[in-house]
Amino acid sequence: MTDSPPRARARATRRRGSDRGFNRVFRWIAVGSGVLILAVLAAVALFLLWQAWPALTAGSDELATAVPRYPEDTSFVAYVGPLVFGTLLAAILALAIATPLAIGIALFISHYAPRRLSQVLGYLVDLLAAVPSVIYGLWGFFVLAPFVVPIWSWLNEYLGWFPLFAGEASPTGRVLATVAIVLAVMILPIITAVSREVFLQTPKLHEEAALALGATRWELVRTAVLPFGRSGIISAAMLGLGRALGETMAVLMILSPGFLYSFHILDSAQHQTIAAYIALDFPEASGLAVNTLIATGLVLFVITLAVNMGARAIVARRKEFSGAN
After folding, report:
1. Which domain holds residue 199?
2. HEC string of 76-89?
3. Are the beta carbons of 256 and 174 closer than 8 angstroms?
4. 84: closest CA among 314, 311, 315, 307?
5. Statement to judge: residues 138 and 95 lie in one domain
6. Rounded-to-integer distance, Cα 77 and Cα 161, Å
């Protein structure tokens, strides 16, 4: 027995009203979530600025008295400069190592491997992201550092004319080059997972058109997959860079720290990162020393924010050329 037209119209009206109410609730939830994220970010920035202000406005004599390793007659900018240099150098080296490997793994999983093998490899890559950073630090300290000592010695002996391999190779392996490898392993699953999902979103018509024109598998990847996923690859790389910039425990456990502007990544006691420096000195800090550490954290916050904003700008510029439209 069917409903009469007035009943059907009334039921349709109630359904539209209910859908309108759900849409309104969902819209306000979405807007509230976005505002909450901005509010939390602003609160973190204000807290860092408020706590860092005493260190930013203090004189060099006060900072030298409060901070054990602070050199006299040195401004805060000059003091934090080597930390920024070490942080950026370690993150860039890790990104340079991890990005080509991640793209190759993602392409193999998405376009070369059989379905069952690709699923297993996908699970294994994702599992790397679940390993705690302290485990990577222990692995880097006890396994990787002794293993790479002869490799770093060989590079230093035969390729010492190149600035990165110049100087004197450390006999312990606790150098920035080892840290870069550990950071590369840590950011590899992030870049691989995002790149893999982007490659899988390549329009099938693009791939079939390339194959119909006689393209090989590599030509298909080069002409259809990579142009489409270019903006996604950049986004994945920037996510990995943000992880590398903020990594603490692995760097703290492996790196022999120093406060120098040096490109000698095989030497010990040359570099230090901001996050590892804060973790190392915070337990014994008090008073103005705490404000100094928070000020260095503010610098790292600004660097991370700048990296993400730059990545967004690059993605927005390259999107129209990526085929994603």
Report:
1. 73-321
2. HHHHHHHHHHHHHH
3. yes
4. 307
5. yes
6. 31
168 and 283 share one domain: yes
Examine the domain organization and report whether 178 and 41 are in the same domain: no
DSSP line for 184-234:
HHHHHHHHHHHHHHHHHTS-HHHHHHHHHTT--HHHHIIIIIHHHTHHHHH
Tell me, yes or no, whether 100 and 169 share the same domain.
yes
Rounded alpha-carbon distances, angstroms, from residue 250 to 163, 183, 185, 259: 25, 8, 11, 18
Statement to judge: residues 19 and 159 lie in one domain: no
Tell me which of 28, 57, 86 is where a domain ends.
57
- How many domains in the chain? 2
Ramachandran region of residue 138, left (φ > 0), alpha (ψ -120 to 50) or beta?
alpha
Predicted model pTM:
0.86
pLDDT tens over the chain, length 325 residues: 455 666 656 665 666 656 666 788 888 888 888 899 889 989 999 999 999 998 888 888 888 888 877 777 778 888 899 999 999 999 999 999 999 999 999 999 988 888 888 888 888 888 888 888 899 999 999 999 999 999 999 999 888 888 888 888 888 889 999 999 999 999 999 999 989 988 988 888 888 888 888 878 888 888 888 888 888 888 899 889 988 998 888 999 999 888 889 899 999 888 899 999 998 888 887 888 888 999 999 999 999 888 888 877 777 765 554 444 4
CA distances from 314 to 228, 231, 240 (A): 15, 8, 16
Cβ atoms 292, 63 nearer than 8 A: yes
Residue type, 120: V
Which position has the token pair 């602003």?
A: 42
- How would DSSP label each residue in 101-126? HHHHHHHIIIIIS-HHHHHHHHHHHH
